[in-house]
Amino acid sequence: MSVIDGNILDGVSATTLWTLHNRGTEAKRSDGVIRDPWAVSLLDAIDYDYLKFGKPNQSHGLRARAFDAVASDYLSAHPRAAVVALAEGLQTSFWRLARTGLADELTWYSVDLPPVMALREQLLPADDRIVPLAQSALDRSWMDRVDASHGAFITAEGLLMYLQPDDVIDLITDCAARFPGGRFMFDSVPHWFSRRTLKGLRLSDRYVAPPMPFGLTADEGLALAERIPGVRAARDIALPPGRGLFKVAAWPPLDRVGAFHRARPSITLLEFS
User: Fold this and answer.
1) 209, 203 in Cβ contact below 8 A?
2) Buried b / exposed e across 225-250, counting CB within 10 Å, b at 16+?
3) What is the band of 3 on the pLDDT scale with cuts at 50, 70, 90?
4) How would you class 213 by CB atoms within 10 Å of its CB: exposed for 0-12, middle for 13-18, buried for 19 or more?
5) How far apart, in whole angstroms, are the C-alpha atoms of residue 124 and residue 109?
6) Rounded to the nearest 5°, which phi and psi values hold at 196?
7) Nearest CA among 184, 191, 116, 117 for reference residue 161
8) Where are any strands of DSSP class E within the chain?
9) Residues in a beta bridge with 61
């Protein structure tokens, strides 16, 4: 695998290198919270000043495992479903699921901006089950390409926080209308964190995180079932336990403390009517 200069990505697109750093570094550890060989390969193949994102941590590896677990449940019941990965970045979820045998019959739609898709094409193997769509997730034309006759599982991993609130609600509303019976899974940052990014969240002396204007609490995620037409149910998805503080944070009794519950990041699964 040839070495690629990661500086070809900028703005929000560059945040995929942030998540790759966390996930790939974790996958290299003997006690890592995720096994992700392709993340390790990508991390080694992209030349970049990763430490400008700060010290790597378990957060994105645990998030990926949570998405994998819910996707696995859906694919066990809908093996020929369409999986749509919005703003997929350098996620390697397809290959993790393929190792379990759950990707044999699905069609995987990978959606992201052209520079990111070009990088995926250079560094990740081609597969007949993967349909690359080089476009914004907000460009609804991707919906016309998706064959959802056997079900649809849509992910927005690390995406919605970077969008304007109205754009988020409109996107979910349109997905619910176009993919009845499908699922939509996304993660959110809490409001306090969103406000910090709007003021300029410095991860190091060399990097300021892009603004994240969309914040959501876990309870607000559940309330989307009442707020958005076509959403019949919503579930709060817990992160799996990690090491140290990440293990403590996943302790169920802690989430019954109101201040912690409102202040933590969340993952929401929406079920469409």
Assistant:
1) yes
2) beebebbeebbebbbbebeeebeebe
3) confident
4) middle
5) 15
6) -65, -40
7) 191
8) 4-5, 46-47, 82-86, 107-112, 130-134, 152-156, 183-188, 202-204, 207-208, 231-237, 266-272
9) none
Of 221, 240, 241, 239, residue with least CA distance to 231: 221
Confidence of residue 2 (pLDDT cuts 50, 70, 90): low
Taking each helix axis from N to C end, the angle separating 37-45 and 15-28, rounded to the nearest 10 degrees, works out to 120
How far is 227 from 173, CA to CA, in rounded Å? Answer: 10
Domain 68-202+214-272 has CATH 3.40.50.150: yes
How many whole angstroms separate alpha carbon 234 and alpha carbon 222? 5
Integer Cα distance of 267 and 47 in angstroms? 31
Per domain, the residue ranges of the chain are 68-202+214-272
d(C-alpha 121, C-alpha 125), whole Å: 7
Mean pLDDT over all residues of the chain? 97
Strand pairing class (107-112; 82-86): parallel
Give 64-95 as a 3 state SS string. HHHHHHHHHHHHHHCCCCEEEEECCCCCCHHH
Residue for token pair 């044999």: 104
At residue 18, the 3 state secondary structure works out as helix
What confidence tens digit (pLDDT) does each residue in 38-82 have?
999 999 999 999 999 999 999 999 999 999 999 999 999 999 999
Confidence of residue 1 (pLDDT cuts 50, 70, 90): low
